[in-house]
Amino acid sequence: MPNQLLHKADTKGFRYFEQLLAPVDVTLNGSNSWDIKVKDERLFRRVLRDGTLGLGEA
Questions:
Q1: Bigger pLDDT: 48 or 1?
Q2: CA dist list (Å): 39 to 3, 8, 18, 23
Q3: pLDDT tens digit string along 3-35?
Q4: Which of 2, 44, 3 is nearest to 21 (CA)?
Q5: Please, are residues 15 and 7 in contact by the beta-carbon 8 Å criterion?
Q6: Of the candidates 5, 7, 15, the residue with the CA atom closest to the CA atom of residue 37
Q7: pLDDT tier at 1, thresholds 50, 70, 90
Q8: For residues 14 and 38, is the Cβ–Cβ distance under 8 A?
Q9: Non-local CB neighbours of 7 within 8 Å, separated by 6+ positions
Q10: Confidence of residue 54 (pLDDT cuts 50, 70, 90)
């Protein structure tokens, strides 16, 4: 799965971060240039565990 973008309902983490980012008009795997592309669902666990350092390293 790491080579494909995740779909909206793939993981609980995806849905959590999707709701968190919605108020600032950032969509996971959206079509805008500022949207975040997620290819590996481990990203969500890493960000929750390590915060901004985990996000930057991921």
A1: 48
A2: 6, 12, 14, 22
A3: 566 665 567 888 899 999 999 999 999 999 999
A4: 44
A5: no
A6: 5
A7: very low
A8: yes
A9: 29
A10: very high
**Token pair 């901004």 is at which residue?**
52
pLDDT of residue 10: 62
Cα–Cα distance, 49 to 58 (Å, whole number): 12
Judge contact between 36 and 28, C-beta under 8 A: yes
pTM of the model as a whole: 0.71
Q: Residue by residue, what is the 3-state secondary structure of the chain?
A: CCCCCCCCCCCHHHHHHHHHHHHHCCCECCCCCCCECCCCCHHHHHHHHHHHHHHHHC
* One-letter amino acid for residue 21 of the chain: L
